[in-house]
Write a structure and sequence with these properties.
The complex is a heterodimer of chains A (226) and B (329).
Chain A lengths: L4 E5 L5 E5 L3 H26 L3 H26 L5 H5 L2 E5 L7 H9 L1 H4 L6 H9 L6 H6 L1 E5 L23 H13 L5 H10 L1 H4 L3 H16 L3
Antiparallel strand pairs in A: 1-2, 3-4
Helix pairs in contact in A: 1-2, 2-4, 8-11, 9-11
Chain B lengths: L2 H23 L2 H6 L11 H17 L4 H18 L7 H18 L1 H24 L4 H4 L2 H10 L14 H21 L6 H23 L3 H34 L6 H32 L8 H21 L8
Helix pairs in contact in B: 1-3, 1-4, 3-4, 5-12, 5-13, 6-10, 6-11, 9-11, 9-12, 10-11, 11-12, 11-13
Classes of the chains: A mainly alpha (226), B mainly alpha (329).
């Protein structure tokens, strides 16, 4: 329940890590979709209001399509993303990490009827809290889950004046932490860089700005630039 | 190997794979038509994907930086999504589903289907006979206003059947939204231990039986039967099937047998959802008939009844024989 990342072992023998999305981003995505649907319905009612009873029929058809077909079509056509999910970087995938298929999209959205019981997606919320990967009943039945789409960032390592060896021998996880620092540092403020570098003072033997420079040097040494 | 060397050595491969994913991954059909592609050849993609997987495994094992691992993981994930995506839907498959899989599913759940039919038909017949014997019983089902409206709807002197002056298109929209939502809700409420579909089925049975009985007894029977003859085949059977699927879901909840309850629910839900697709299509057909055929007043009774009879025969034959020849027992 605490580790919401699902590891799927693929036929290639490598673990695929699927970060499960919790109820809050999913509810927000649903709200965005709800707003879009309401907007479309309002626009339709304004146009169709001019056509008396036939217009009423078309309006009901559109209501039906927005209610039942909108999520199925969006998830089927746009690789598991409705506009709301796209806005929040969420995606529906099959539980083995493959893209969601049409049948699964139909099933999980038809089962919304159950998740909405008795009111306000209560069943879905309870199921999501008990499931280790936050799946609502419709997801369980369809064999799908909602994941965060990873945001890719270009690899850029903080520049260093010179390469230097660490003062102390470092354990593997400490090495990884220093490299990770050098890769994240360009997006941090200088104050935060120094604050973080001070934690590693025993390895660099320096404080403040000098510590940051030395840490970058050590990172380059660890990365193999010697 | 140091991370830097690792990156230098493999960067070109990763970029080639990434470019292929960007250019040709998303739309296979359009990509095949494009002959000018000069990057990674399509037939080399599985091998490139496997190499990325292997390199990701190495990177994790050697403790390379989270950023590099994240990048490889993203490449792998995109490759995985491509290698293992479900096949594109085919029209033939949809046809097969409705012609064979759907009746087979219904027959596979024969027990709950018969139970649903009983829950629906027994109250229907009982209330029909009850209203014939004691006509005042109709007032326990609905108010005087509703009775008067109903009698006006099926007034034998009217040109159209079963409704006031609404247009066909409006009623089509109404039937679709109303009936399909009711059908799906009947199924879904099965999660309340099967109580939902049982209540929905018997209540609908009592109500429909009461209405039919009252109209029959007061001499409005002819327009009423002419109106319902056409669409009843699809509509009533769809409601019974949805109810049966709901009962199945309820049974899976309270009596999962030797399976884990969640497994039973998942399996039941998957079957139920497929049945729902069929129910959806049946109610769509029913709404179409109800809106554009049932209300036509000038067609003589024998025309209406023979079409209705043919549709009933069609539905029963479909459910009884559909998909039997392939996996003959």
């Amino acid at each position: 329940m605490l580790d919401t990342v699902r590891e799927v072992h693929t036929p290639e023998g490598v673990a695929l890590r699927l970060p499960a999305a919790g109820p809050v981003p999913r509810a927000l995505a649903w709200l965005i979709d709800f707003g879009i649907r309401m907007g479309l319905l309002l626009a339709a009612s304004m146009v169709l209001g001019a056509f008396d009873k036939a217009g009423m029929g078309v309006y009901l058809l559109i209501l039906f399509a927005l209610f039942w077909l909108y999520p199925i079509l969006c998830e089927g056509l746009f690789d598991g993303q409705t506009p709301g999910k796209r806005a929040l970087d969420l995606r529906v995938v099959s539980s083995d990490g493959a893209p969601v298929g049409w049948l699964a999209a139909c099933v999980r959205n038809l089962m919304r009827t159950v998740d909405m019981l008795p009111f306000g997606y209560a069943c879905g919320l309870v199921s999501g809290l008990f499931d280790p990967w936050g799946r609502r009943l419709g997801d369980l039945v369809a064999g799908t889950m909602v994941v965060h789409v990873p945001k890719s960032r270009p690899l850029s390592v903080m520049a260093a004046d010179g390469v230097m060896a660490p003062v102390l021998p470092l354990r593997p996880e400490e090495q990884a932490a220093i490299v990770a620092f050098a890769e994240r540092a360009p997006r941090l403020t200088p104050e935060r860089q120094q604050e973080l570098a001070d934690i590693a003072a025993p390895a660099t033997g320096a404080q403040g700005g000098e510590g940051v420079h030395r840490l970058a040097g050590i990172a380059h040494w660890l990365l193999g630039k010697r | 190997m140091r991370q830097e060397h690792f990156i230098v050595r493999h960067e070109a491969e990763w970029q080639a794979f990434e470019q292929w994913l960007d250019a040709r991954g998303a739309r296979p059909r359009r990509a095949r038509a494009d002959r000018s592609w000069r990057g990674l050849a399509d037939e080399d993609v599985p091998a490139a994907y496997r190499r990325v997987c292997q390199q990701l495994g190495l990177a994790r094992r050697r403790g390379y930086s989270p950023q590099l691992v994240a990048r490889l993981q993203e490449l792998m994930q995109r490759g995985h999504a491509l290698m293992y995506r479900p096949p594109l839907p085919r029209w033939q498959r949809a046809f097969e589903f409705f012609a064979a899989d759907m009746p087979r599913l219904v027959r596979a759940e024969a027990g709950v289907m018969w139970a649903a039919l009983a829950l629906f038909a027994i109250p229907l017949v009982a209330s029909f006979i009850g209203v014939q014997v004691k006509p005042e019983l109709i007032h326990t089902l609905m108010g005087a206003q509703q009775v008067a409206e109903m009698e006006a709807m099926y007034d034998p002197a009217k040109a159209t059947l079963g409704r006031a002056a609404e247009s066909d298109l409006m009623m089509f929209g109404y039937y679709i939204f109303n009936n399909i939502s009711i059908g799906l809700r009947t199924f879904a409420s099965g999660l309340l231990a099967g109580v939902g579909p049982a209540l929905a089925l018997s209540f609908n049975g009592v109500f429909i039986g009461g209405v039919a009985g009252h109209l029959q007894a007061t001499g409005h029977g002819d327009p009423f039967w002419r109106f319902v003859a056409g669409h009843s085949a699809f509509e009533l059977s769809a409601i019974v099937i949805a109810g049966g699927a709901g009962l199945r879901l309820g049974l899976d909840l309270i009596a999962p047998g030797r399976r884990r309850r969640v497994d039973a629910l998942v399996e039941g839900g998957r079957r139920g959802a497929r049945l729902c697709l069929g129910v959806f299509a049946m109610l769509l057909a029913a709404a179409f008939i109800e809106a554009f055929w049932s209300s036509i007043g000038w067609i003589p009774a024998w025309g209406k009844y023979s079409v209705g009879g043919a549709l009933w025969a069609l539905v029963i034959a479909w459910l009884w024989f559909g998909g039997r020849d392939r996996h003959a027992p």
